[in-house]
């Protein structure tokens, strides 16, 4: 191309493209579609906005970025370059790693489909495309301006004096460019700048400007050259083990049920910053028998799934201090009653959009303070995107090749991912069952944007188990929600899994009795669901504990305590000073406190009182589960469907339609009335409220009282135009 030839523009190139090509560009750049661009100039301006270009380059793979970098290095931002020149540059830069010609052609086509590169025979880079890349971004192997290798550059830098080295460090810190009179070709060769230019460690831009080559800068800063991953990694991944994934996921479901129960009865108070303190985390960890890392994962997952939330619970705890608490939402009640597939699917969907990074708990934040569970400093907004990219890569390759696959398919995002974050997200995928020796069916559903509940084949709940003489209960599968709640009350889990083992103990049975269950009810539950006869040892254990349990009886009066053992009652009165217990008879005492508070104080003192009603029957006086209001669902952003794309293409073709029509010389009113009668489509030229001249393709419906109502052909919407604003009416040929 001649030097005086006009530089091609993106608008001019868009004007030559077919409707199909424009539709492809709009699908790839959906942020430029709404509101509908009125013409090609508007579309070209939107495509060259920095924010839009950033979104576009994030979608490119390493080869496409490499081709874009090659075009830029050849000067494609300033003047047109040809495709053969790009291929030749890549051949020099990549040598043996050069992909096949058709692969490079496909990468160029992709860049055009994103409108990042435009032109047919002559290629140019759209404005704001290269600035959209990270500062100092470079993918292709570097070649110094003098053709020196990295080893040669490193040797030259090592031989420099402190003065020369300091000058290079200054240039590196200031962006790589510097102004100096010593850049002129006739400058004093004894000065540092001419010496560095002569050695190839600086490059001359003009007579007053020097540039620090990228390779020299990297050597000065001590950064290693990473190999460019411009070839895709061969697929090696096999489908994951769905059974293994479901087994892992159902264990998370069981832990979530326990967590919901725990914070239902005792909501977890938050610190002023909204996080959970160390004491609360330690208490929950001991209560649920989970390590604190697992608990942090569980709390983060519950928040992301909407099952628990920070807020003011109803009812408030008795020791309310006026702050916020972590407590279940009403959604937790529905979740607890749903089937296992729905429960696991809900947790997986919540994990997919989770922004909390529980592995950061305990580390120092920017202010050198420890990060607490559910604190704002543990939130990473980019986690959902990183999670999606990592799981997508794992659907193609094994874990050993994960980093290489990420580097090819998502080079910009991968360059920003912390290696520890990648490791932790892979572990989380295994923990929740999205990855088990490969991506599971539920994990693939998440990648495809589908509901994982549809593909989770959870085992059917069982209603029978085996009670053994050593007080263990063997459960061959998951229990129904009602049975699971009873089992958790009377026995402690000893061996988790799809087939689990529980153990009856004095502590677990006392816990059940404290919750209001009676010995006959426990025996009936065990006999009804046991596949074998109930061992005598289990009956003896229940009878023995029942004799010791409930020897103190309490009732609402504003409350009383009674016992057939006067000495035991006397000891209880002495222990109940905090609730003002007063003995009024050898076997009866009263308190000026609610019964629940009296029972709590006496249990803390080592007694085992049981609540009773007016007829002596046992009562469950546990407080109502605390709940906080559920969060409002986020607004759903409508997807860019094909009808919107086609409407946008019609909208940006309005100028062309106007130029191809005939401007009527008849009075505007007469033409519009004729168009109404003939149901003809016309192009209106008018001035909007901002004084901007606009063309719009419409079909007039009515003309009345100085107003025109017409249907916009692009959107189907009805608009009203004032006759005095209409400048011309173009009748389509």
UniProtKB/TrEMBL annotation:
Any idea where the Helicase XPB/Ssl2 N-terminal domain is?
465-576
Q: Which UniProt keywords apply?
A: DNA-binding
What is this protein's name? DNA-binding protein
Q: Where is this region: Disordered?
A: 616-636
Listed GO molecular functions?
DNA binding
One family from Pfam that matches here is Helicase_C_3
InterPro entries to which the protein is assigned, alphabetical: XPB/Ssl2_N
């Amino acid at each position: 191309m001649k030097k005086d030839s006009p530089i091609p523009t993106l608008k001019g190139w868009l004007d030559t493209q077919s409707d199909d090509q424009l539709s492809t560009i709009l699908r790839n750049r959906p942020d430029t579609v709404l509101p509908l661009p009125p013409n090609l100039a508007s579309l070209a301006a939107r495509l060259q906005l920095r924010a839009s270009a950033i979104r576009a380059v994030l979608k490119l793979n390493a080869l496409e970025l490499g081709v874009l970098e090659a075009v830029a290095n050849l000067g494609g931002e300033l003047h047109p370059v040809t495709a053969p020149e790009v291929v030749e540059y890549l051949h020099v830069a990549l040598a043996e790693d050069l992909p096949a010609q058709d692969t490079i052609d496909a990468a160029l086509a992709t860049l055009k489909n994103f409108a990042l590169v435009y032109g047919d025979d002559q290629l140019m880079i759209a404005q704001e495309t290269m600035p959209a890349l990270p500062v100092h971004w470079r993918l292709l192997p570097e070649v110094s301006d003098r053709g020196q290798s990295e080893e040669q550059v490193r040797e030259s830098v090592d031989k420099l004096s402190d003065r020369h080295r300091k000058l290079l460090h200054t240039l590196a810190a200031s962006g790589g460019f510097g102004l100096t009179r010593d850049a002129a070709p006739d400058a004093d060769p004894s000065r540092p700048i001419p010496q560095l230019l002569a050695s190839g460690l600086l490059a001359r831009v003009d007579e007053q400007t020097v540039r620090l080559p990228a390779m020299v800068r990297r050597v000065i800063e001590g950064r290693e050259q990473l190999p460019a991953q411009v070839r895709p990694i061969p697929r090696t991944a096999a489908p994951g083990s769905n059974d293994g994934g479901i087994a892992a996921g159902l264990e998370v479901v069981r832990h979530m049920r326990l967590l919901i129960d725990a914070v239902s009865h005792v909501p977890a108070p938050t610190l002023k910053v909204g996080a959970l303190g160390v004491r609360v985390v330690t208490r929950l960890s001991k209560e649920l028998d989970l390590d604190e890392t697992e608990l942090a994962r569980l709390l983060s997952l519950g928040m992301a799934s909407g099952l628990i939330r920070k807020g003011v619970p109803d009812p408030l705890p008795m020791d309310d201090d006026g702050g916020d608490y972590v407590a279940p939402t009403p959604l937790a009640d529905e979740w607890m009653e749903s089937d296992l597939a729905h429960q696991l699917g809900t947790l997986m969907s919540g994990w997919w959009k989770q922004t909390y990074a529980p592995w950061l708990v305990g580390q120092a934040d920017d202010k050198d303070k420890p990060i607490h569970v559910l604190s704002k400093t543990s939130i990473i907004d980019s986690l959902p995107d990183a999670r999606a990219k990592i799981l997508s890569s794992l659907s193609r390759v094994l874990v050993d090749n994960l980093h290489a696959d990420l580097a090819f398919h998502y080079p910009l995002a991968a360059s920003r991912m912390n290696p520890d974050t990648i490791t932790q997200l892979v572990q989380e995928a295994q923990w929740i069952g999205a990855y088990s020796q490969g991506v599971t069916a539920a994990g693939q559903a998440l990648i495809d944007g589908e509901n994982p509940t549809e593909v989770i084949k959870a085992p059917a709940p069982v209603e029978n188990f085996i009670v053994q003489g050593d007080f263990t209960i063997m459960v061959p599968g998951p229990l129904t929600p009602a049975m699971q709640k009873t089992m958790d009350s009377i026995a402690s889990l000893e061996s988790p899994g799809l087939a689990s083992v529980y153990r009856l103990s004095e502590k677990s049975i006392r816990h059940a009795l404290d919750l209001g269950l009676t010995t006959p009810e426990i025996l009936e539950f065990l006999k009804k669901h046991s596949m074998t006869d109930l061992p005598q040892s289990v009956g003896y254990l229940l009878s023995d504990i029942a004799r010791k349990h409930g020897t103190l009886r309490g009732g609402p009066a504003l409350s009383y305590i009674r016992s057939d053992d006067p000495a035991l009652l006397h000891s209880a009165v002495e222990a109940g000073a905090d609730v003002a217990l007063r003995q009024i008879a050898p076997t009866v005492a009263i308190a000026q406190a609610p019964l629940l508070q009296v029972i709590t104080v006496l249990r803390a003192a080592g007694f085992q009182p049981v609540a009773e009603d007016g007829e002596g029957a046992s009562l469950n006086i546990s407080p109502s589960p605390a709940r906080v209001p559920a969060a409002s669902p986020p607004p759903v952003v409508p997807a860019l469907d094909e009808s919107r794309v086609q409407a946008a293409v019609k909208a940006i073709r309005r100028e062309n339609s106007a130029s191809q029509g005939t401007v009527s010389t008849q009075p505007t009113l007469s033409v519009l009335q004729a168009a109404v009668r003939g149901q003809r489509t016309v192009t209106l030229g008018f001035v909007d409220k901002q004084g901007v001249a606009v063309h719009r393709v419409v079909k007039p419906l009515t003309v009345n009282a100085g107003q025109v109502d017409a249907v916009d052909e692009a959107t189907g919407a009805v608009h009203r135009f004032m006759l005095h604003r209409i400048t011309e009416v173009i009748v389509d040929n």
